[in-house]
Amino acid sequence: MKNSGKVVFNKKTGEGLYHLRLAVKKRFKAKPAQFINVKVSDTVVPLLRRPFSIFSAEKKELDLVYKVIGEGTRLLSEKKKGDAVDFIGPQGNTYPVDLKDKKSKLIIIGGGTGAASVHFLANELKKSKRKFTLIQGARNKRLIVAEKEFKKLGCLFATEDGSLGTRGYVTDVLKKVLEPNAVIYACGPEPMIKAVKRITEKMDDVKFYASFEAYMGCGIGACISCVIPVGVADNFVYKRVCKEGTVFDVSEVVI
Amino acid sequence: MKNSGKVVFNKKTGEGLYHLRLAVKKRFKAKPAQFINVKVSDTVVPLLRRPFSIFSAEKKELDLVYKVIGEGTRLLSEKKKGDAVDFIGPQGNTYPVDLKDKKSKLIIIGGGTGAASVHFLANELKKSKRKFTLIQGARNKRLIVAEKEFKKLGCLFATEDGSLGTRGYVTDVLKKVLEPNAVIYACGPEPMIKAVKRITEKMDDVKFYASFEAYMGCGIGACISCVIPVGVADNFVYKRVCKEGTVFDVSEVVI
Amino acid sequence: MRVNTTVNIGGLVLKNPVMTASGTFGYGLEFEEYVNLNKLGAIVVKGIALNPVKGNKPQRLVETPAGIMNAIGLQNVGVEAFISEKLPLLKKYSTPVIANIYGTDVDGYIKVAQRLNDSATAAVEINISCPNVKKGGLQFASDKDAIATMMNGIKKVFTRPVIVKLSPNTGNIEEMAQVCEDNGADAVSLINTLVGLSINLKTRRPNIANVFGGLSGPAIKPVALAMVHKVSKKIKIPIIGIGGIMNTTDALEFIVAGASAVQIGTANFVDPSITGIIADGIKSYLDDNGINSITELTGTLEY
Amino acid sequence: MRVNTTVNIGGLVLKNPVMTASGTFGYGLEFEEYVNLNKLGAIVVKGIALNPVKGNKPQRLVETPAGIMNAIGLQNVGVEAFISEKLPLLKKYSTPVIANIYGTDVDGYIKVAQRLNDSATAAVEINISCPNVKKGGLQFASDKDAIATMMNGIKKVFTRPVIVKLSPNTGNIEEMAQVCEDNGADAVSLINTLVGLSINLKTRRPNIANVFGGLSGPAIKPVALAMVHKVSKKIKIPIIGIGGIMNTTDALEFIVAGASAVQIGTANFVDPSITGIIADGIKSYLDDNGINSITELTGTLEY
Ligand SMILES: Cc1cc2nc3c(=O)[nH]c(=O)nc-3n(C[C@H](O)[C@H](O)[C@H](O)COP(=O)(O)OP(=O)(O)OC[C@H]3O[C@@H](n4cnc5c(N)ncnc54)[C@H](O)[C@@H]3O)c2cc1C
Ligand SMILES: Cc1cc2nc3c(=O)[nH]c(=O)nc-3n(C[C@H](O)[C@H](O)[C@H](O)COP(=O)(O)OP(=O)(O)OC[C@H]3O[C@@H](n4cnc5c(N)ncnc54)[C@H](O)[C@@H]3O)c2cc1C
Ligand SMILES: Cc1cc2nc3c(=O)[nH]c(=O)nc-3n(C[C@H](O)[C@H](O)[C@H](O)COP(=O)(O)O)c2cc1C
Ligand SMILES: Cc1cc2nc3c(=O)[nH]c(=O)nc-3n(C[C@H](O)[C@H](O)[C@H](O)COP(=O)(O)O)c2cc1C
Ligand code: FES
Ligand code: FES
Questions:
Q1: Looking at residue C129, which CATH number applies to its domain?
Q2: Residue-range definition of the domain harbouring residue D37
Q3: Which residues in chain D have Cβ-Cβ distances shorter than 8 Å to C141?
Q4: For ligand 5, what atom is nearest to the CA of residue A221?
């Protein structure tokens, strides 16, 4: 859906990290792992919208957390209170959660700005009183996304330099909390997804779903540019992250 | 010269009209009719700098008055107090004023945003106690540039709808004040320059200099794009407005 | 005043000159929630081949200054699935559907056109910016003989308008247009994307897995306008202008340059409602300027 | 570490690979207050013909999305005035001066080169993006025979390096590069501007008096990179990369794509100091990345 919001705040929260809140006209209905595609410029440079996962969507507010990478995110970081922000969304599917299954351990893992999408999931589960284990990893404490909000959700942290939580990777924490029949949800850089996949693929009672990122043209399923290979190595089809995703069963993704 | 300044104010003063003051590090030495070439964007759209005449240059301050026309001037109008503005200049020549000649009547005419450049000239003449007649014209009062500052200089106004000063064109006022041996300095739209030329070319004791505008690529004499034909109709050369100009003896320009 | 926005493209009458550009509008359905598809002159769908094609490895798209570059690799569902699965879903709209087609040799093109003749496809648009496998990967785009043969074959099997989509990656697009006209094309559309390369300096690798990609968007608009104007001086069949059209003004510039209709590509990614907005914009422009029919504007560039 | 930024362009050794692009740097002198001209690899001056040329009617330049379009009409002072008035003023710099030359027929080119042989010009760069008057205005750019004849003529009268500047307005720039190499060119430079058109919808007239213009700037960078890379796979003589280079990263991308040196054009209008900044930037890049010589980077694109 074409949509727009007004900046409530757009504040720096860490090294290159920002938290943006938009006020939207109608209650914004979205699901964890969905994203919005934001127009960051009002000239033709940068031309394309920029996709961001929804961090939270409460009543008439919509939050993003993002990292300044290049021109597009730099322009976004310059938006001031009251500025209008044009976006499309929510787009994409969501993490499959079986709320009837009350016993499997749910493990939620966020890495880098992938933390946005898993924050939304953890928050929804908390609301529906379903227990979960939440892990967030980063190189160091200053790169941890939305530390305060994650702490409220009982998050376990892993930092490579030990400046917050466990010294090491999210997988080091994962190994400690992993149980048979666990269901894992994750969003983060590809090396993280791969590392988790290596651990989980040996355990066929464990399910692993991840929200993927891909370079997007349209964000609405039209250009077939955001594809990832789904199937097995020599017999796969390309599926669109913006439409069939962003969440895929990682055992089916060729990575 | 490569230069930069910080926005002191950038305020709306009329219909699409703005007055921008920049604070520069060193005393800014410039002459009437000179311009600066301003970087309005920090992406590659718009790519080129935008030229603006210097309205005034006092101590460490530099003023422009400009009209929002397209993307470049729109971006300029969005600059806020404290923002840095990168510019090149001052560039170009100046109005030839013979300060030893104390009797010829000096008539200064500004039309549209061309008023910026003649304001600078009138102000300098006032400082050196040389008398002059100043005229500014526009379609209506709301399009008069820097009304207050021009009033201080004793300006005669001409508006097409009579909402300020004489009803009519600057040439209607000019005809009333024109004297033998007058020297006219003008900056404004081409039709205005042409109209003044038609009046003055019949009087060979009257001199007429105008500051010209042209679409500029580099603003420093390198691209030869800002040319106007100087000479007579079938024997002219192209001269650069940014380098040999902006001021030319109108009797030598093929318009 | 009731302005007339209809245009005639080789017998196919469009309610207005605004079409979608192949590959940027999916099979139309992706845009249902953003634009009333009935508002469009025509929907040109993603390029279709005889058989399904998997497409290139990702990364398939990258942004460039005021443009994008893509190498999707002509991923498509194949002509059968297009006819049985996609086309029926567009039936509910009154807007004609034009199939953009391609092949790996002359025969491939003809077979797709033949199969489409028995479908609700209103016209075909032939994408000649493809390598000819039989000729060792040479581009059809500059091969006059191949185009003549192809055109003759297609005209025999496809009974509705045939549009040839020209490539800008040639030194003689006017001649290519002439060959199309001479061999029975009902219209030409131009331009397809310009060959480009984008490099990641850190990795010293191309940003696109396929190495080269096709450049589109505002960056190429001046090139497209120049080619449309030049071709319009050469041929008499209608021209569909394409390349960097982002708004109504851009669209009208192409019409002034000599186009009878336009296609909107990359702009759909920036604003998925843009085609409807431009269709409305053109109507308003005619209204505001007291122009009775859009056809009065075609080729009115003066100098 | 002392990094080596020198490059060898057909015998002409440049202290670094940063050159200015013809027509965007005047005769060099206009930039004295913005950049230390001694810092540059070479200065390529505005195109020079046998006789002075008045140039096109204004408007000669217009901005386009992420680019500009120009039709200056090759206004120039003529080869005699260049040698007697402009060249002496550049003597005080150690930087070699390269004359960009053109003619209206093969003979015209040869005569300018001949005259320049007795001057301090370090090399000539032949601009073949010009209409051949004798051949009825056909472009030299795609005329292999004309280029062969011209090259042979020029090599006989000009004893220092001859660079041919290729036009992108052709479907076969690799073949054109090959013809140059085969006929004794010491290097090729590419790309010149793309033919474009810009229209003012209000007046329905072209924005440029000459109607068509040459597109340059960031918009064309992907096209230029693609052509440089393709040509680098075809020929062995050095390539000078040109097109939309705005900063050090852009310059290095061209080198990775296969260029031995680069020319900076439109960027000089945005920042007249940019050539010096890029020369420094390349040095720092080598330093920071532990690369001994810029030549190690040429053509290192991997896929
Ligand atoms: C579904 C999805 C959800 C995302 N959620 C978040 C989030 O919550 N927070 C966050 O900080 N980032 C998120 N990202 C990444 C974010 O979109 C990129 O960081 C951003 O687009 C970079 O733009 P830029 O102009 O600053 O950088 P650029 O300099 O343009 O590009 C830097 C890199 O960013 C990526 N990128 C650029 N443009 C796009 C595009 N149109 N689509 C996809 N990737 C692109 C590319 O990998 C590119 O190499 C998400 C991406 C996707 C696909
Ligand atoms: C020497 C000189 C002094 C000037 N002084 C003033 C002044 O004091 N106040 C003022 O308001 N305006 C002045 N102008 C005009 C001002 O430069 C243009 O209005 C401005 O560049 C428009 O930019 P834009 O992006 O808003 O409009 P665009 O939409 O880009 O262009 C609108 C029109 O502005 C003109 N223009 C655009 N770019 C340039 C360029 N690079 N060089 C020249 N003209 C251009 C063209 O005529 C164009 O058709 C001056 C121009 C020159 C050459
Ligand atoms: C992602 C993408 C996919 C495309 N796929 C096709 C295609 O399948 N067939 C075709 O003829 N053109 C294809 N094109 C080219 C467009 O139809 C159009 O000619 C080009 O993008 C220029 O127009 P624009 O600047 O408005 O995008 C594609 C363009 C893009 C951006
Ligand atoms: C204003 C202008 C004038 C030019 N004049 C010439 C010329 O005289 N001879 C020539 O070979 N190229 C000329 N060019 C082309 C440039 O040298 C260069 O090839 C082109 O602009 C692409 O590089 P850029 O994108 O860095 O500008 C000119 C370009 C511009 C913008
Ligand atoms: S971004 Fe276009 S299909 Fe996903
Ligand atoms: S603007 Fe380039 S010479 Fe005047």
A1: 3.20.20.70
A2: 7-56+72-193+214-296
A3: 171
A4: 3
